[in-house]
């Protein structure tokens, strides 16, 4: 099967959001420090444990571990236009809100934001928990456009306004899947 190229850039980061603990509201920050293999310092998903971050935790939806989540501002615009649901960038619970770049094609691709390099892992589909925390109708309205989960390949500082540049696709092999019976 032929590899598809990532979309042309650059896009840009319009806002950054962190939450200190799971389930707490996110708050807007002007910049965030991305740490390789750990995530965004100060965020609920930051891995502060010893050694490398585990590739899985729990079962089901909660098993997908990532360092950073992103969403297109255009997806939030479409949600309001098509479904009458207005979400602020903080309410969507993604770390980075981006504009002028399609995120879905960045799965398995590296991209640069400022000096930071991220690698798209998988789509960040909306879940029932997001709908509980925010409002009904989000799952249907954000299906297949709920954003991207990514890992930090090279750390640094991400700032609001930073450009997002897809990097040329490399033939780097995907990580093998973790067996479902491992924690």
Quick tags:
12% helix; 7-stranded mixed beta barrel; disordered C terminus; 11 strands; 183 residues; alpha+beta; 3-stranded antiparallel β-sheet; 3 helices
Quick structural gist:
This protein has helices spanning 73-83, 128-133, 138-142; strands spanning 11-18, 27-29, 31-35, 39-40, 68-72, 96-99, 110-113, 116-123, 148-154, 156-159, 163-166.
Question: Could you walk me through the main structural features you see in this protein, from its secondary elements to its overall organization?
Answer:
The protein is of the alpha+beta class. The chain is 12% helix and 30% strand. The protein contains 3 helices and 11 strands. It has helices at residues 73-83, 128-133, 138-142, and strands at 11-18, 27-29, 31-35, 39-40, 68-72, 96-99, 110-113, 116-123, 148-154, 156-159, 163-166. The strands form 2 sheets. The protein has a 7-stranded mixed barrel. Strands 4-3-10 form a 3-stranded antiparallel β-sheet, with no helix packed on it. Residues 57-63 and 171-183 have low confidence and may be disordered.
Share of helix, binned? 10-25%
What's the Cα radius of gyration? 16 Å
* Global morphology: globular
How would you spell out the order of helices and strands? EEEEEHEEEHHEEE
Number of strands: 11
Main sheet, how many strands, which sense, barrel?
A: 7 strands, mixed, barrel
């Amino acid at each position: 099967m032929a590899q598809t190229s990532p979309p042309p850039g650059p896009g840009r980061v319009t806002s950054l959001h962190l939450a200190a603990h799971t389930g707490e509201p996110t708050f807007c920050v002007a910049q965030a420090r991305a740490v390789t293999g750990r995530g965004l310092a100060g965020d609920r998903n930051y891995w502060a444990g010893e050694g490398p971050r585990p590739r899985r935790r729990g079962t089901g939806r909660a098993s997908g571990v990532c360092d950073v989540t992103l969403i297109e501002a255009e997806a939030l615009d479409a949600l309001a236009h098509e479904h009458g649901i207005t979400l602020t960038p903080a309410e969507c619970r993604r770390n980075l809100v981006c504009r002028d770049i399609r995120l879905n094609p960045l799965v398995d691709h590296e991209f640069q934001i400022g000096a930071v390099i991220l690698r798209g892992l998988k789509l960040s589909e909306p879940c029932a928990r997001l709908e509980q925390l925010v409002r009904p109708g989000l799952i249907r309205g954000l299906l297949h456009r709920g954003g991207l989960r990514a890992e930090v390949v090279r750390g640094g500082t991400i700032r609001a306004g930073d450009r997002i540049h897809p990097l040329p696709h490399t033939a780097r092999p995907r990580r093998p899947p973790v067996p479902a019976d491992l924690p």
